[in-house]
């Protein structure tokens, strides 16, 4: 399916929101922390990311019909794109932030392995993060990979895969919490007295992926808003609600009772509009969406790398200078693009070829084995 540039741009905006939230202390003007005032709710981009993920996975597999090759293809593409950059970014961040000695301490290796396998760092920690992995933003990748796992398995069910998808999430988010008397939409509610992996897979933040899937199904359906001005009005209202929630801080927090509410409305109204109407999108915004994954993972590496340099030079005072903030953002953009080329294009394509060749070899071997052992 053709890329929807407005959604791509929205993904870039979500990444930039998170980055600005993480560097807001740089923008102090005359003792006034303007960055804190403007960017403190930038974590709202995480909710938008989750909804967009559900939407994109749905529309890109909407016409899938395979029962064996398609799920394998899905998992290969997801792993090849997510794994190389995440593993490299996590390792680089730890190296700059905690030093090479961190890697030789036994307990830290276990933490790193859990991070590499997208397992929550501490199930006794506060939800929805459940402890932060070595690179803080990695907690969101845990939920992304859980969604990809369920979504990928659903592809085995062909036309009935939506029954499997919604059924699985209904069990995780409704049936199990109701059975234990813990049903809630609050992502920060401590659901279990004895936390286990069940605490993670039943966290209400997963509703945002399902909302994205629902919006994706609506987009590929025949349902639309026939009147352009009505669609434009709905989109305008949704944008105002999104910006209003961001600025005011009303219902601030993760989940559909927090930032997910206005994010869902924005996503829904935008997809309904672009389904039948053209929407000019600045090329730079589309570019940000293209490198959004690299932006999301590399900005913390640039941040800690620059901090170590400032400490060596004893220039830590410039940390709160606005000009330093702009220099930092420029370097983040440059490094993210380099990361995109190296990891998301070169490494991803190489890893996909390796995995495709491996599974093709396995199929040929199995076929050859059957020819020799099965009765003729």
Task: Please summarize what this structure is.
The protein has 376 residues and is mainly α. It has 14 helices and 2 strands; from the N terminus they run αββααααααααααααα.
What is the topology?
Layout: H1 5-22, E1 28-29, E2 32-33, H2 34-39, H3 44-60, H4 69-98, H5 106-116, H6 138-154, H7 161-179, H8 197-201, H9 207-220, H10 228-248, H11 259-276, H12 283-290, H13 292-313, H14 322-373
Antiparallel strand pairs: 1-2
Helix pairs in contact: 1-3, 1-12, 1-13, 3-6, 3-9, 3-11, 4-6, 4-13, 4-14, 6-7, 9-11, 10-11, 13-14
Keywords, separated by commas or semicolons:
single chain, 376 residues, mainly alpha, two-stranded antiparallel sheet, 14 helices, 1% strand, globular, disordered C terminus
Provide an overview of this structure:
The structure is a single chain. By secondary structure, this protein is an all-alpha fold. 69% of the residues lie in helices and 1% in strands. The chain has 14 helices and 2 strands. It has a two-stranded antiparallel sheet. Residues 363-376 have low confidence and may be disordered.
């Amino acid at each position: 399916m053709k890329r929807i540039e407005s959604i791509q741009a929205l993904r870039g905006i979500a990444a930039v929101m998170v980055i600005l939230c993480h560097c807001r202390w740089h923008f102090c003007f005359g003792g006034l922390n303007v960055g804190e005032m403007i960017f403190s709710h930038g974590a709202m981009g995480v909710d938008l990311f989750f909804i967009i993920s559900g939407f994109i996975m749905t529309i890109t597999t909407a016409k899938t019909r395979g029962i064996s090759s398609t799920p394998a293809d899905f998992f290969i593409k997801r792993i090849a794109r997510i794994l190389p950059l995440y593993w490299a970014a996590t390792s680089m961040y730890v190296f700059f932030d905690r030093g090479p000695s961190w890697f030789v301490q036994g307990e830290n290796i276990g933490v790193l392995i859990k991070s590499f396998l997208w397992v929550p760092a501490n199930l006794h920690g506060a939800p929805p993060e459940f402890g932060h992995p070595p690179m803080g933003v990695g907690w969101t990748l845990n939920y992304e990979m859980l969604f990809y796992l369920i979504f990928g398995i659903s592809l085995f069910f062909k036309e009935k895969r939506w029954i499997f998808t919604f059924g699985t999430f209904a069990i995780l988010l409704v049936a199990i919490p109701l059975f234990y008397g813990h049903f809630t939409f609050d992502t920060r509610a401590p659901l279990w007295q004895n936390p286990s992996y069940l605490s993670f897979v039943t966290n209400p933040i997963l509703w945002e992926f399902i909302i994205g899937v629902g919006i994706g199904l609506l987009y590929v359906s025949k349902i639309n808003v026939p009147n352009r001005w009505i669609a434009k009005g709905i989109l305008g209202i949704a944008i105002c609600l999104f910006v209003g929630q961001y600025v005011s801080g009303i219902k601030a927090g993760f989940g559909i009772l927090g930032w997910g509410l206005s994010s869902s409305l924005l996503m829904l109204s935008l997809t309904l509009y672009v389904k039948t109407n053209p929407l000019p999108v600045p090329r730079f915004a589309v570019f940000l969406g293209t490198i959004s994954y690299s932006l999301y993972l590399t900005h913390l590496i640039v941040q800690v790398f620059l901090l170590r340099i400032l400490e060596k030079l004893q220039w830590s005072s410039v940390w709160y200078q606005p000009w330093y903030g702009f220099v930092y953002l420029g370097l983040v953009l440059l490094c993210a693009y380099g990361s995109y080329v190296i990891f998301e294009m070169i490494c991803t394509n190489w890893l996909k070829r390796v995995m495709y060749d491996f599974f093709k070899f396995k199929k040929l071997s199995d076929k050859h084995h059957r020819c020799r052992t099965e009765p003729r």
